[in-house]
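Task card 7
Instruction: Convert sequence to structure tokens.
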Amino acid sequence: WLKPLPAQGVAGGKMEGRRPTELAIGHKAQPNAGRKEPQGPLQTRVYFHTTYGEVQLGETVCVVGNHPSLGSWVPERGLTLSTNEEIFPCWISAEPVLIESNFSIEYKYVVVTNDGQLRAWEDFTGNRRAVTTGAEMTIEDDEGQYRQFAMGEANAEEEDEEELTRVLSSKSPEVRKILYDHKAAMLDELEAAVRIDTHDTVFMVALQLPLTIVRGESGGWKIEENAPMDGRNFAWLPLLQEFRKKTKVKIVCVGWPGVHVDSFRERSEIEKLLKAHDCIPVFPDRQDFEKYVNFCTTFLWPVFHDVMLFFQASKPVAFDEHGWAAYQHMNNLYANAVVPHTHESDIVWVHDYHMMMTPTFISRKLVKANIGFYLHTPFPSSDSFKSLPIREELLSGMLCADQLGFQFFAYARNFLVCVKRIFGHDPSFKAGGFCGVEANGRHVMLKVAHFVYPFQATKEVARSSIVVKKAAELKELFKGKTVFASMDKCDNLSGLVPKFRAFRRFLKMHPEYKGKAVLVQYTFDTACRSQFASALWNSLQGMVDAHLKVDVSGALKIIFEDGDQDSEAYDIVVRSENMDRIDRLALFRAADVLLDTSVKAGLNLMPFEFITAHHDDDNKHSVAIVSEFSGCSRVLLGSIRVNPWNIGEVVIACERAMKMEPMERKELNECNLVYVSESSPCDWFMDFLMDLRRARKKEGIRIESIGFGAKIRHVCMTQDFKKLPHESVLAAYRSAKNRLLFLDNEGTLAPDNRNLHREYGAPKGDVSDLKSNGNPPNQEVLDCLRSLCQDQRNTVVILSGRNQPMLEQWFSSVPNLGLAAERGFYYRLPTTGGQWKCMKQNPDYTWQSYAFEIMRQFVKRTQGSFIESKGSALVWQYRDADQHFGSWQAKELSSLLQELLFGFDVDVLNGKGYVEVKLQGINKGVACSKVLTRVSQTFGEVDFVLCIGDDRSDEDMFEAMNAAFAEDTPTGGENTSQLSTTDGESDDGRSLRLAEKAEGNDCLLTVSEPRLGSAKGMKSAMRYSVQDMSTLATSSLGRSSQNNLARLASGSLNAGEETVGRRIFTCTVGRKPSAAKFYLDDVDEVSDLLNSLKQQHNRSHKDTPPSYHTWSGGDMRKGMRVGSMPALSSLAFPR
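Output:
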């Protein structure tokens, strides 16, 4: 079935088919050559599809290649493919092979006889190539034939799932298994397989280490494995120890050890002591640390709980610049402690609002670091956050992480709104339920999962003898009373004042409970008590009846203001001492009702601890009253939710708790207990890390930092996306004979001032009365254009969305300049005699009146929106409207326009900040394709293309150039964020690169094989090649490229021959994800480039004889080219 072909380049012999190249045979699989990997290499499951028709009975098709799973080029050990009568001539791999990710496969198909002997190699020049990416990939060398077969019949009868099942069940068992396996693989890919094993290291960065350092009796230092006394009611250490034990993953903690030491010797001693516990201490300056903690406590903590103390105080204070400087310095100090011990394959998990800038400082030094950030507090509303003078800095710091964690979606929603309103970044959603933010080419994932309370560990402590003893002591102390208990931080967010007032009113409204109910309140101070906390404590003194203190014997005593210990007249008792976990559990175990009135709390673990303390209470079930502003109220559905500001509602809740029937108590308690007991903090920990690993930055990309100071942002782009090299452009320009320049206007040649122009209110006339505002280029740019247009080897075209009269007004002083108005709908080339041409004959504009009326109604009802006319297109702009309301209105308008304009030859586009209705098939890419084709047909191969633009409409232009200079449009390629303007695929699909040298500057002609399995890439590549560029195949450009690439593939074309003259430069203005290969920073750099080309033109015009100035290097007589092809004026563009 494969005819033996003579071996190429081998004298005196024949071979069957074409064997692998010698280079590939000698190349052994080296998954991570030259790269240090601390972990086992990630693997990709690879399937193969191909088609072979004339196979003899008993023969099979195998895949052999340069990987052990493909037989290492030994046909007898290759991967055997399978087929049957229903899918023949397709051959597929029933099971995938495991190959290291990012491994460059070289392979070929062979025919093997029934006894395992090689009969023939496939008739394919060179080796097939592919690069393994992702968790799973399918290499389709059958042009999608099997995929169409597999999905075609199912899609034809997919009225319902029963019908699909019937179709699949009618197939053979082997085919059904293959189809179901592929569907299962699609489901598995929703949650791509990632692995965290013993080769990985996780760095936990937090304000304080999970253990503390204290000075021992002998004067040395020792470690105490207790929770830090900073108000937290849980400790990280037990969780980390459990995780290490289960997974064997190394976890390194980074933080302040709890003491300040100045001696280098003592610091070394502490470091050595902590190293045995996998801890890295941070030793900050004492004064800087105090400023830092004070800034966090008095500024960030209230702000993130939507309390703007510096605005609401009677004497507002200025923003603490010194505290902000200390905050940045401390975050940098923590980052510097992490960086020397980690590299890009490790995981760095940063915790809480103290460390919001740490991801920035880490990513500056390790751009590919896998960073996660978890916020244990709420995220403020957009109105509160937008008022901060450091809002951009804090958001930029968070967006430097790969994954952001929030306790609940309400907090994540506030973050998304802030990012949208401040930076304009939109949320994005991916298959599998993944949510994130698209920021500068990066996908920052959001993870919503609250911290899980350690139920099992706490349950053991709650049943310990010391807790039982102290709980019994409290019960005896308040014998005969119903105990309402709570433990809160001494600040305004705890709602202590509303709580005391509500409890007083409860007893006043229900005097029958006077002396039968008591509120026992435990409080603790923050790490840095502020003036607000001190004022609060002073005000609370007049609201309490007694204090609970420990006497010299260690027993708890109720102490009244007058020192009396025997009075029974008390309703509110407060204890304000440093208390550990034992004291809290004893209080909750002795209490009957939990009363939480937090004004704002991210999660509030106190109710979880209260429920855990009563897990074995079979005789009397407890009741939890929680504030609806605490995060726990969203998940503890068996609690009584109250608004702490509504005192009457709190009173009713207290009365209900006193009168609740035992059966109702039991049901509510069991509801809460089931939720608390079924979750594991270790599972929460692992789940976050697994998603963080999935969110890591992809291989093969480059990340650049833009901006200065704390506002620095990271832009993600491909490796080959770089700044436009002026010297390379000038060198290519000098050697070129047929040049083509495509230039955008606003944002490229002239500053984009469209945001300064806006029509207020709904337009009162009709469509013809709409105005369009723009900004022309300055005189210096016009001079450059005039000089470039004087050179007859140049074709310069300005493409804009503005109408014809506006472009004529702006560029009338530049002769021989091509213009494309309304994104190419109307065009005028130098050889058309100044006449405007239209891409469509007799276009139908009746749709505009309908679209205009609908848009006008939306302008009336959407403040900040307006209508803009672009001739062949109408645009409803809402960039000045409220972004969320505008996007809602845009969706409704887009849906209405699609319904109303059905049947018209128009497209309705819902873009970022606008809704556009335009004629189908009209964009800058189509216009560029037409110009390129005609210039190539008329004057020969274009050997220099410079294409510059700045916005989304120019991406069509870049993509058109990519497709135009690709030899063979890929059918399964992946359209990356930055596409090489010289990428293509040869006839045999081989990947090669020809490096050229042009006057000391490197220029590359790249012919590369795209990644397989991406419909998106296929769609993008085919966008212009099918209908807009069909004539390229027969043009001189297409023929020349085809011949050159064929010769290059066969090895008969050397550097310096025909293709060396082709130079293609696509350039976007501004560093951002783009289909262009190069970038310039701003309009001024574009002007500098044009000025350099102008100077080059002036020099060449001065030094070169007049007879040389022709399009093809021939003679020129009286402005006519001798022996050249007909001019564009003699040709008609297809209608």
